[in-house]
Structure formats: structure tokens, C-alpha cells
Amino acid sequence: MIRSPLLDGTAHGFLGRRGGVSHGVCAGLNVGTGSGDEPGAVEENRRRAVDAVLPGSTLVTIYQVHSPTCVVAEPWAFAERPQADALVTDRPGLLLGILTADCAPVLFADHEAGVLGAAHAGWKGALGGVTDATVEMMERLGARREHIAAAIGPCIARASYEVDDSFARRFEEADSANERFFTAGRPGHHLFDLEGYVAARLAAAGIGRVDALGLDTYAEESRFFSFRRATHRGEPDYGRQISLIGLAP
């Protein structure tokens, strides 16, 4: 269980692959129903994750599509979860869950207002403004952005994230200052700092307290699942880890 001191006082955790019952390429605490893992194992892993963070709570997830969309969480049935990439709540007993396998999970808390958020920030969602949308939706529930703390969990690090020229241009065309999140790699390629970019977006949105945990999903195989690592190895599948935050009943 990985926690951020900025979120102390709120039940939360960034979970990796340790402590689960899955086997094979998804060995560990795989919570991804989209994987080819045994459904019973995924269900047990999800149960263990909930019990580790906020026992007795209701896990609420979304159908993640790499969008900037944020929704207010409801205890919807799993099959009816909306397409979105962030969710917020002010309701005790709901445990917000975000699945990742290299993208950046971001957990938010306004302790004074009792409003929480969770976002899935892959490069596309991050560039599109998923963290900004989360902050705005939290404000609708009574949060104040200057009171919000945010923590960026395990994600692919700059040293592991090679991208091509067209990828870098997309960010630089959005804002020339984004050049600072890229360093030169082999010809025609760059290394992208996803965590740094997400942290900068949070700061620009007025979030004064941001904790970037600096954990590389690609490099730390024993701790985390990684889509890119699995792809580079030609593996047929990959697991997903979960990041959770909720208000105690």
C-alpha cells in the first residue's frame, strides 16, 4: 500500500501488483476486468483492495476511455458505469477507484469540504484537461481549489517513456512551455515526463499542494503492472493496478 502524506486523514491508497491471487502474466493484485485473467481472481483482488483501504465501502469505478470527462460518483452497477476518466464524491461510504498500467492515477482531497476526486491521466486525458475537469467538478460539490491536495501515484517515468516527434509536437502546439517535459532521445524520438506534466497542470489549476510520488511502473516489475513493458516483451496480456480514495461512513 502506497500512501501520500498530503492525503493523511482520508482513506486512500495506491496499490500495485503485490498481495493478489492472479497468476501468469497478470500475477498479483490484477483488478482489470478487461484482461484475460480469471474473473474470480479479479473479483477477489478487488475485494482485497477495498478491504485494505476502506472496509465495508462500495467500490465505484468508471469505464475509462482516455477522455477529459469527470462525473459525480454514484453506486451504479458495474455494467452501467459511465464512460469517463475521473470521478468525484462527497458521500461517505463510496470508494473511488481508478485503474492504471502506466497512466498516472491522481487522487484529490479537500479535507475541509469533505470532497474527494480520482482521475486517470494518460497522456491524452492529461493534455485534454482531465485534472482540470476534476477540480471543477469538486468545486461544484463545495470544494475550494486552494484547499485541495493532490497526489500523483505510480506511472511510467520519463526514462521509460519514449515518444516520437509527432507526439512531442502535439504538446508543444498546445503550449510552447510544454517543451520542458521532453528530453532528446534517439533520432526522431524524445523522453516524456508524464508525471511532471500532470503536476504542472495541477499547479496551473491552482492546486498548491501536489505530491508526485516518483514511482516508475515500467521499471519496477515486481511492484507494478505496465502496459508498455508487456508490449515490448510481446506478452499476450497485462494486469492493471488500482488507486483508491474514499470517505469513511
List key phrases describing it:
CNF1/YfiH-like putative cysteine hydrolases; alpha+beta; 24% strand; 6-stranded mixed beta sheet; globular; single chain; 6 helices; 249 residues
Strands, helices and their partners?
Blueprint: E1 11-14, H1 39-53, E2 58-60, E3 70-72, E4 86-89, E5 94-100, E6 104-110, E7 115-121, H2 123-128, H3 130-140, E8 149-152, E9 162-164, H4 165-174, E10 182-184, E11 189-192, H5 194-204, E12 209-212, H6 227-233, E13 241-246
Parallel strand pairs: 2-5, 3-4, 8-12
Antiparallel strand pairs: 1-13, 4-7, 5-13, 6-7, 6-8, 9-11, 10-11
Task: Walk me through the structure.
The protein is α+β, with helices and mostly antiparallel strands and 249 residues long. It has a domain at 5-145 and 220-246: CNF1/YfiH-like putative cysteine hydrolases. Helix content is 24%, strand content 24%. The chain has six helices and 13 strands. It has helices spanning 39-53, 123-128, 130-140, 165-174, 194-204, 227-233, and strands at 11-14, 58-60, 70-72, 86-89, 94-100, 104-110, 115-121, 149-152, 162-164, 182-184, 189-192, 209-212, 241-246. The strands form three sheets. The protein has a six-stranded mixed β-sheet. Strands 1-13-5-2 form a four-stranded mixed β-sheet, with helices on one face. Strand 10 (182-184) and strand 11 (189-192) form a beta hairpin. The radius of gyration is 17 Å and the shape is globular. It starts with 10 loop residues before the first strand and ends with a strand. The model has no long low-confidence stretch (mean pLDDT 97).
